[in-house]
Amino acid sequence: MPAKTNAIVRQLRAAVDRFENALGELTEAIAWTNDTGRVQWCNRGFAKLLGRSRSDLYQIDIVELFPVESDCDRNGSTPHPFHLALTSDSYTTQIYHSQNRDGRPRVLELFYNAVSVDPSEPHVLLVARERTETQDRTDSSSLYQLLADHSTDWISRQTLDGIFLYTSPAGQRLLGYAPDRTIGRSAFELYHPKEIERLRQIYREVVRRPETPISLAHRIRHKNEYYLWFETTFNAVRSPQGNVTQEIVAVSRDVTDRLSYQTTLQRNEKRFRALIENVTDAIFILDAQGMLRYASPSAEKLLGYTSEKYLGQSPLQFLEKIEIPKVRRAFYKARRFPGQCEVLREFRIRHADGTSLVFEAAITNLLSEPALEGIVVNCHNITERKKAEVQLRYDALHDALTGLPNRTLFMERLSQAIAYKKRQPNYSFAVLYLDLDRFKSINDSLGHLAGDRLLVEVAKRLKSLVRQGDTVARLSGDEFAILLQDMSADANAQLLADRLQNSLQNPLELEYQEIFVTASIGIVLVDTLYQTPSDVLRDADTAMYRAKQLGKARQEIFDSTMSRNNLKQLRLGVDLRHALDRKELELFYQPIVSLMSGRISGFEVLLRWNHDEFGRVSPDEFIPIAEETGAIVPLGWWVLSQACHQMKRWRKQFTNRELTVCVNLSGRQFSQPSIVERVEQALKLTHLDPCFLKLEITETTIVENEATVLDTLQRLKKMGVQLSIDDFGTGYSSLSRLRSFPIDTLKIDKSFVQTMERDRGNLAITKSIVMLAETLNISTVAEGVEIPEHLNQLRQLGCEYAQGYLFSRPVNAEQASEVICENPTW
């Protein structure tokens, strides 16, 4: 034997000797047996306890050495604790009575515990001790604790009333109860209320029949107030003399997960059975050759066939002939790959009544599954879904009211026309964009139902005038579009437009009255290459709006100048939102002159835009765009802030002048809920006295929002701000209604002032405004004063203030400061 091997053997022998020496030094008596009960090894303590040598005890039968004290022999009905330990997951105990060599009786307490070092060769560890008469029954010896403290199960010793005398450390790990906090409490406090009575019976039964341990699955409450399932074995406790005491030992094992798993399995089995029996899908099981082995009850309901009649036959006989090759390919593919699911998207099966149903199927190869040994085909009826899809597609592409194609379908067909033109350059087509004139008035006056009837009738008339291949669509509201395919000449589109106008001019009877309707029509003749349908529709829409601008009830053909104008408007709308950041906006000031003193009393603030590409953009051009896009609101607040800052500077520069600054508020700005707070904030930031600020709103703003405007004006007036109505005389309001509004000034619109010298009517209107305003203690400002005659007439009428080119054009802040310094007089 090589030297290295000899060294290893010596080391192993030394380790074994050290192990045996260590066990031999223990005071406890320990023995090791095989599964037949023959002693394989014991320590010196075991031999000393029995008064025999260790060699005498080897191979001795432990069952014969410590027989059960009972009237029954070892083959009787009372099993030996050794055999119980072999078949149990916990230790067993035995109280054995014998005599010392001097004849005195003694009691041995034996603990058997099965140890599986090798699953094929189980062994039993025996620990023995001698109990003396003076030992307390509740004292847990080192041997008892050696087994109990290291057990994964919860071991407890209790009285018949359930009072804990001892609990093992496993109780804290499993249930959260520390042993020292448990002793003295009743186990019945921890048991589930519904199981307490049964457990009391078991306690009494264990004492009556101590030879037979009783096991029960029951619930024990955790420290955190929830219940866990345990399987507990209850044993009676004997005295050292072997008499049955009024105590029991309970060994409890946590089986919550096991019971939960079993419950889940049972529940799943029931659920699966109910699912198969009540599922709406048709489920078939086929053998490897594709023959029918099973059909679910739902299959009979869906298809009308009796499954028993067709078992062992091929289900392909129920398919439409055209579907058989597709289904056969899917079946063979699934059969080649065990466990794989092959999806069959759409196929038709014949019902017993001859109708055709549409199904989708999942084919799963479970031939290798012992429980099935077949190919499962799960068929889902999608007949109604396919019908719904067809209907949904129709609904998605058609207008619900008129039944005409909607915008989506129209754009699809327009895309097809553009694509065809790319392939065939000589092909041309046209698009007509129609908008009904005065439709909103009809809708508002006669009601929406009448409006809907009008739209349906218009749709019928439009459709009756086009060819079979053309498309009439309702885009939205009262807007329609027509795609004319293969137009050979421009005149054809014009001719159709004329026919459409003539057709619409025929009266319609709505709500027992005749209604006449006209349309504005924009035409695009697509003889050049467009890239997208949106471009075509955009140009047709542009031409339609041009027709409206020229008087309605007419048609216009699109040309490139229309597009350029629209592009500029669009560009201005975008650039206007960046004008502040780019510092392109500037405030100009036009003097307001007192006609009593002939001197400047204040300025009206006017906004100017210096565009980096288009130069100076007229307010008449960009203010409507700002109103439409909503940009007027942030612009208005900026104007207010800048005007207050400028007025504050003038107040410091010209301390002897009582000047005011007039700022226009748009209708959108005035409708903002925070308008009063914004004005107050601007005044606070600039430290400007409110009396030097005059806010101007249009007469139209008052007329349209009378109740809201009144409250806002009163709050502004209370703040100390002056209030003015701009362009008075154009909004159809009356001076008598102004009596309730806290107005300081009326500005007479320039359309009346500039024609006074030649139009007696406007002169009379101006005079009336001045006289009535004076009666209401409201001052007046005349706008648009351009010639001396205007100034003389206004002084004669008693007008208090005026502004216009006669005095000064609008100037920037620096120039306005110079004008104030010059202090001109008129």
Contiguous helical run count: 30
Strand arrangement within the widest β-sheet reads 23-24-26-27-28-29-30-31
Helix coverage percent of residues?
40-55%
Q: Mean of the pLDDT scores? A: 85
Oligomer: single chain
Question: Would you spell out the secondary-structure blueprint of this structure?
Answer:
Blueprint: H1 3-25, E1 29-33, E2 39-42, H2 44-50, H3 54-57, H4 62-65, H5 81-87, E3 92-99, E4 105-118, E5 121-131, H6 142-148, E6 154-159, E7 164-167, H7 170-175, H8 179-182, H9 196-208, E8 214-221, E9 227-238, E10 244-254, H10 256-278, E11 282-286, E12 292-295, H11 297-303, H12 307-310, H13 324-336, E13 341-350, E14 356-366, E15 374-381, H14 383-397, H15 407-423, E16 429-436, H16 439-446, H17 448-464, E17 471-476, E18 479-484, H18 490-505, E19 508-510, E20 513-515, E21 519-526, H19 533-549, E22 555-557, H20 560-576, E23 585-594, E24 600-611, E25 615-617, H21 619-629, H22 632-653, E26 660-664, H23 667-670, H24 675-686, E27 693-698, H25 699-704, H26 706-719, E28 722-728, E29 745-748, H27 750-753, H28 760-775, E30 779-782, H29 788-797, E31 801-802, E32 811-812, H30 813-822
Parallel strand pairs: 21-22, 24-26, 26-27, 27-28, 28-29, 29-30, 30-31
Antiparallel strand pairs: 1-2, 1-5, 3-4, 4-5, 6-7, 6-10, 8-9, 9-10, 11-12, 11-15, 13-14, 14-15, 16-18, 16-21, 17-18, 19-20, 23-24, 23-31, 23-32, 24-25
Helix pairs in contact: 16-17, 20-21, 22-24, 24-26
